[in-house]
Amino acid sequence: MSIRVRLFTVLLLMTGVVWLSACVWIYASTKERLEHVLDARLVESAKMVSSLVGDRPVMAGFTGEATSSGSGLEAEPMEAPSYERQLACQIWSVSGKLLSKSDSAPVASLSDHATGFQNTTINGAAWRVYAVIKPDLGVRVLVGDSLQVRDRLVDDVIKGLLYPAILIMPLMVGLIWLSVSKGLAPLARLAASLTARDASQLHPFVDRSTASELRPMIRALNSLLSRVQSAREREQEFITYAAHELKTPLAGLKTQAQVAIRSTDPEVQRQALKRIEQSVDRTSRMARQLIDLAAVEAVESVARPEQMVDVSALILDVAHDLEFLQKSRGVQVIYAPRHRARPISIAADASLLRLAIRNIMENAVQHAPCGSVVECITQATDGKLSVIVSDEGPGISVDEQEKVLQRFYRSPRSMPGGSGLGLAIVKMSIERLGGTLRFGGPAPRFHVRLEV
């Protein structure tokens, strides 16, 4: 169901409930007030008739066939309007003899009570009767009001209020629909603006002239567009760099292959094949790091469950993977856990932790001098795990420690063949693990500390 239809339905239902509640309240209030007014009229009528009886004597022996005017003639039947003959009046002697009555009054006594109000039923008709006694004259005056006529009066008043409301109901429905459409117009304009944009238009929306209710959504959209723009820029930078970096070793591979094919000197061929091997290693490492970088970035948008990771086993596995590199560089990796009595395990994303440790250790092996040792130490303090990798390489100057964490940055002192992605991958992995990356340590060794 659309928001427009939902709002329209809710407003229509709420308006209907309020309208029905108002009708019930008006009916009850009007009926109560009318009954109060009609009761007051009964009292006034009874007192008026009583005063007239006191001024004019009533003939005794009246059979009840005469009219209240004393002429003895019955009024001619006629089509009475809705509220004619509502009141009926009877004058009775104290001894129970009917002395006089109005044309609309029945022959039977309207009520047997002495004074005050009483509801009675005569010949199937309900009456509201007020009685007053004139002790000095020995008469009792009864004035009755037809409850049927009362109810019809209340119903007619309510109908007079309801009929106009029912007639304007279609107009009210149309106004509600128009109001909802008008209220949702800014949302429709925003949707139209989004639809009109192409994939390259990622500039933010201006929310100064929009409705205040839409501003949080526009700010969220602008934040999303900013992230998409940043991701696109990184992607374009990634593609440009990857294309350039892959082009260079591939061109070198082709050149060295041509040299090996054309030369008849075994030494020249051996050197060409060695350079081909180095180019393949460099290309393979860069391709792996590009894949690692894409994997780390994917973690930002896809939730991955944590698991208990045996850090010691993970480090030994990474060192085993780097065994060929250690031999080619003449470097040895030594793992020295501070707590040998028990293994160190933490709850983390194993793939991210592996990427961080591998790139740190690989970077250390690449830059350590031949015949040196790369030492890896683990220690757990205050609920945190620290992985410290140290080597005897040139290290990273304080001025460059922020720059080396950027993608594709290469230090002038770094070894040739690097891609500039290793420490960037470490930084992204550690941040997603909620940890920190630090550089430093006492000379002559350079330390890289991972804290998770």
UniProtKB/TrEMBL annotation:
The keyword Nucleotidyltransferase does not apply. Residues 241-452 form the Histidine kinase domain. It is a multi-pass membrane protein. Keywords: ATP-binding, Kinase, Membrane, Nucleotide-binding, Phosphoprotein, Transferase, Transmembrane, Transmembrane helix, Two-component regulatory system. SUPFAM superfamilies: ATPase domain of HSP90 chaperone/DNA topoisomerase II/histidine kinase, Homodimeric domain of signal transducing histidine kinase. Its EC number is 2.7.13.3. GO terms for cellular component: plasma membrane. Residues 181-233 form the HAMP domain. GO terms for molecular function: ATP binding; phosphorelay sensor kinase activity. It is found in: Membrane. Gene3D superfamilies: 1.10.287.130, Histidine kinase-like ATPase, C-terminal domain. It catalyses: ATP + protein L-histidine = ADP + protein N-phospho-L-histidine. InterPro entries: 2CSK_N (IPR013727), HAMP_dom (IPR003660), HATPase_C_sf (IPR036890), HATPase_dom (IPR003594), His_kinase_dom (IPR005467), HisK_dim/P_dom (IPR003661), HisK_dim/P_sf (IPR036097), Sig_transdc_His_kin-like_C (IPR004358). The chain crosses the membrane at residues 7-28. Pfam families: 2CSK_N (PF08521), HATPase_c (PF02518), HisKA (PF00512). This is histidine kinase. It comes from Rhizobium lusitanum.
